[in-house]
Structure of FAD dependent oxidoreductase:
Amino acid sequence: MSAPRVLVVGGGIAGLSAAWGLSRRGFAVELFEQGPLPNPRASSHDEHRIIRHAYGELEGYAHMMPAAFRLWEALWAETGARHYDDLPVIYFMRGETPWYEPTRRSLDRLGIAHADIPLAEIPARFPMIEPAGLTRVMRTAGGGILYPVRILTDLVKLLGRRGVALHANTRVEAIDAEAGTLRTAAGTVRGDAVIVAAGAWAARLVPSLADAAVPSRQAVMFLAPPPELEAAWAAAPVMIDLGEESGTYTLPPRAGTRLKIGDHRFTRAGDPDGDRAGTDEDVARLLDAASRAWRGFDRYTVLERKACFYTVTEDERFILRREGARAWLCSACSGHGFKLGVLMGDAVAGAVAGERDAASLTRWAAGLDIPD
Ligand SMILES: Cc1cc2nc3c(=O)[nH]c(=O)nc-3n(C[C@H](O)[C@H](O)[C@H](O)COP(=O)(O)OP(=O)(O)OC[C@H]3O[C@@H](n4cnc5c(N)ncnc54)[C@H](O)[C@@H]3O)c2cc1C
């Protein structure tokens, strides 16, 4: 008897990881991607992404991180390349934040080292950071940088070697969740199950998602530091500013990547098929925040302004759920889904295999399972 066939829509981290998980479980897999593989328009496609255990009020996700790290290690073992730099992640707080207490609690429970850095040490240790207004600075272990373009590229090659049928430049026009089929311009493809991991485009295939998750256009800037700060940046950790006005995340220039600053305030607007060059309007808030978070921001050279997309739910939780008799939705959304994408893809593959029921998958993926 031939292996059950699963059709995966989307070649971002969630879809590729689902295909990897299905292939490991013995399924025949076909993956459909509307663009090239990997696709520069995917949310997952960038020079770097932050991975961390610190998760604030979304504590359930902190408790998923050990399993996510184990899967990343399994991936490196199979591809032969470890696209991860273990670096401290430093949080710069400017005023009281509800993020601190649950983070401290879950890091303690997980045995992840953390410590506050005396504010008096900040100017010497982090000369790029604006010290005015800081109320607490916390250093955490158990995190660092993932290198997504390299990860996606290796995953695509790995799936090819594993015999997954990869259909690049093949847009899925519709799915039939009851029949387990999908339609492309070439015709209908039959499977035993369909997984939709279509990122910011997912609601076009699963219209009910539109009520729960909206595409959000987000700005990032790649920068060259002034010469006098090059050495400091080369040794810099990942840095996250949690200030109301200065809220930003910063990835240092490591392993051939560029220095990047991004904005974690959601726009909840835009069309993922639109132009991706960062406009003046896209970067206006980011420029303002960057000039509050960093010292002497006007001395940096802007190399690129870029807009990218993800979907955002009201409470920033992921949506993994069963659709009809034969389809599954895997939406690792809300701007924190790369580090966990490998785990979400694997979990939906496990659900297709009957390893867990749909209700428990949905609850767990929403970060609602917090161990006693
Ligand atoms: C600027 C930015 C910074 C971020 N920073 C972090 C971070 O530091 N840490 C972190 O963990 N996460 C971060 N994220 C979030 C993370 O990147 C996303 O949550 C994650 O990549 C989502 O992966 P995905 O596979 O669900 O979606 P995507 O990567 O978007 O993949 C979906 C794929 O489906 C394809 N597709 C869509 N519709 C169809 C169709 N009809 N037919 C065929 N193919 C289709 C798309 O072309 C796309 O390639 C960030 C995101 C952005 C944009």
Notes: Residues 9-15, 32-35, 39, 41-44, 49-50, 171-172, 197-201, 205, 218, 220, 262, 308, 310, 332-333, 335-339, 341 surround flavin-adenine dinucleotide (CB under 6 Å). The first strand starts at residue 5 and ends at 9. The domain at 5-47+149-211+316-365 is CATH 3.50.50.60 (FAD/NAD(P)-binding domain).
